[in-house]
Amino acid sequence: MVRPYRFSLEEFLRLPLPERGVELLEGEVYQMAPIGSRHAHILDLWVQVFVKAFHGKAGVRVQGPFVLPPDTYLEPDLLLYRLGDFRHRYPGPEDALLVLEVAESSLDYDLSKKVPLYAKAGVPEVWVQDLLGGRLLLFRTPEGDHYREQIWVKPGEKVAPLAFPEASLEVPW
């Protein structure tokens, strides 16, 4: 019988991986698809919007480490998180205000694998920019492995994160 090897978070972080480009989801390693120019462009736009809107109010991390103990290491496209000292630890679900994923070829992976993990961990809000479908999917109010609220927003419309309802952010395209 062939069985996959399951990694702990500590084992995964010690692996000699040349470029991360991989994520650990509940002990299983997944290779990430390369980022296309459209994906990079939309992410750049979101980063500019988030940094301008939340400077001094929250941290903005781009494709950086985010852990969901005990066995999940992710690199979301954008993480909006509570300000704090992260010199000796990675942000976790208790620090997250919002996670944004940009999906071109990864929509099924993001929706079927990552969004349920974010919900189980209690991440309050997840946005998935669906480049092929031309929409932004908002997931709010985690309950178990799903979100009770799911909203579709079109490019050009305005949206505000739950953590900052006064913010009015235009969905880029």
Key features?
173 residues; alpha+beta; tt1808, chain A; 6-stranded mixed sheet; two-stranded antiparallel sheet; endonuclease activity
In summary, what is this structure?
The chain is an alpha+beta fold. Helix content is 23%, strand content 33%. It has a single domain, classed as Alpha-Beta Complex (tt1808, chain A), CATH 3.90.1570.
CATH fold name, please? tt1808, chain A
**DSSP strand (E) fraction?**
25-35%
Instruction: Give the strand tally.
Output: 12
- Estimate nothing, just give the exact number of structural domains: 1
CATH 2nd-level architecture:
Alpha-Beta Complex
Instruction: Name the poorly predicted regions.
Output: none
Lateral arrangement of strands in the main beta sheet = 3-6-7-8-9-10
Plain-language structure description:
- The structure is a single chain.
- The chain is built from three helices and twelve strands, in the order αββαβββββαβββββ.
- It is α+β, with helices and mostly antiparallel strands.
- It has a single domain, classed as tt1808, chain A (Alpha-Beta Complex).
- A six-stranded mixed beta sheet has the order 3-6-7-8-9-10. A two-stranded antiparallel ribbon has the order 1-2. Strands 4-5 form a two-stranded antiparallel ribbon.
